[in-house]
User: What shape does this take?
Amino acid sequence: MKKLLFQFDTDSHPSVFDTVVGYDGGADHVIGHGGLTPENITSLVEGTIFTRAPKDKKNTAIFVGGSDMEAGQTLFKAIQNCFFPGFQVSVMLDSNGSNTTAAAAVAKLVASSSLNGKNAIVLAGTGPVGQRAAAMLAKEGANVSLTARTIERAMMACENIKNRFGVDITPIAALDSVARAAAIENAQIVLATGAAGIELLSLEQWQNNPNLEMIADANATPPLGIGGTDMMDKGELRHGKIVWGAIGFGTLKLALHRACITKLFEDNKQVLDAENIFALAKEMA
Assistant: This one.
């Protein structure tokens, strides 16, 4: 029986990246639908749960994607609300690659050194990857702060994280690189999750920081988010700091994404979100 992965996307056009990884993860067919909301999802979900016998439902799965994490979370919940005993399929949430990217980055930091009790800063952390990464760092025992250009945006992101994960993140306003350099002064861990092509810190702003132990940068588009690093860094020592670049931990991100797709077809009861995706990332790292 064919393994069917239904790609339910909150954007108008389903992500090509997610489609490719869906096939690489073991799906025989990936069927994409865009522009989905809780209001128009019901009939599509019913098509996945009513068409195959109980023993065969493991061969149908749902992947929720799109660029908007909040919209993805809402759709993810609405899909599960359509399930009832005996009628469900496995489902995964990874809007904008947030869960798999954040999990891979933090898992590599965990593999490099214990995070418990350390000060961690997520630079430009209001996006999907930044918010997920901040929560994962906090779950590992780090004291986490998150920066944004305005305190209002930082506070909103921290509130979202608190509501979803039950952890406290400290909001910091950092309009420019000078403010960001001040924010990391007492940090042992820095994770940059800013927009592509924007340098958040220069080399001079971190290389002589005596407290800093580990750096990870999720940006692979020049200029990188952290100056003086390389997107290919895989735990390289630079100025006494362990550095992970976007491609350096991106290998794990792709392997993790594929592994999650494979896991969806193990049975029809998998629900893959940040927590269990992160747990799998730590095993793989």
In short: The first helix runs from residue 16 to 24.
